TrEMBL record:
It comes from the Eukaryota. Pfam families: Pyridox_oxase_2 (PF12766). Residues 6-100 form the Pyridoxamine 5'-phosphate oxidase Alr4036 family FMN-binding domain. GO terms for molecular function: FMN binding. The lineage of its organism: Eukaryota, Fungi, Dikarya, Basidiomycota, Agaricomycotina. This is Pyridoxamine 5'-phosphate oxidase Alr4036 family FMN-binding domain-containing protein.
Amino acid sequence: MVQGPRWKQAIETALAVDDKSVVTQLASIDPTTPIPHVRCLIFRGFITPSTNTELPLLLFTTDSRTPKTSQIISNPHVQLAWWIEGAKEQYRVTGLATIIPVPTNGLHKHFLHYTQAGKDNNGAMTMLRKEGFDWEVKRQEVYRGMSPYMKASWCRPIPGSPLVGGEEEAKKWPVKLEEPNADGEWSSEENKRLWETALSHFALVVIDPTDVDYVELGPLPNRRTRFWRNEKGSWSEEALVP
């Protein structure tokens, strides 16, 4: 059964045509400057409350030590640009972003405050909390689904920091991480340490969309539709000039 707002259904249909087009561009604002900061993020899927399928969240991942973390905590308003080549479709998603790090990270309190205080006006995050959704279980599940090479990237020094020691130092970084065996045993204490280090830096980025600009360049004439969500959680739409 098809569920969710029409723009979400369109994304799912487009990805069924071109499942490689999962790289998006996310813009956030640095609290100390008026300059937007843009970076690529890989779309990891939708998370939707079972009690309201009209409120899907978009899921991404990051290193909790990157500048985007402090930017989003200071100003959660973000915009996402996404071109899906195989479908010839562009999506611009405006919404509120949340960073979900490991619970032992001091920044985790910001996530708890956002959800427990109902900062989303009883939206998807609040509904998921009431449904008993476990974000830490989800974080670890997504982490385990990463390739051994991607996992190793979270063992590096802080992304964007000066490369102390140059390329020779970078050659010492782990290239891939080994998982424990079926019994949960590690081949070495060092492999266990690296795994836990990477997992401690791994964070989820969740975007709660409030406005979606959807452009279809495949059909002639081209089509463009704007979707926006009201305070009650319902979506409206309007045709625009492409």
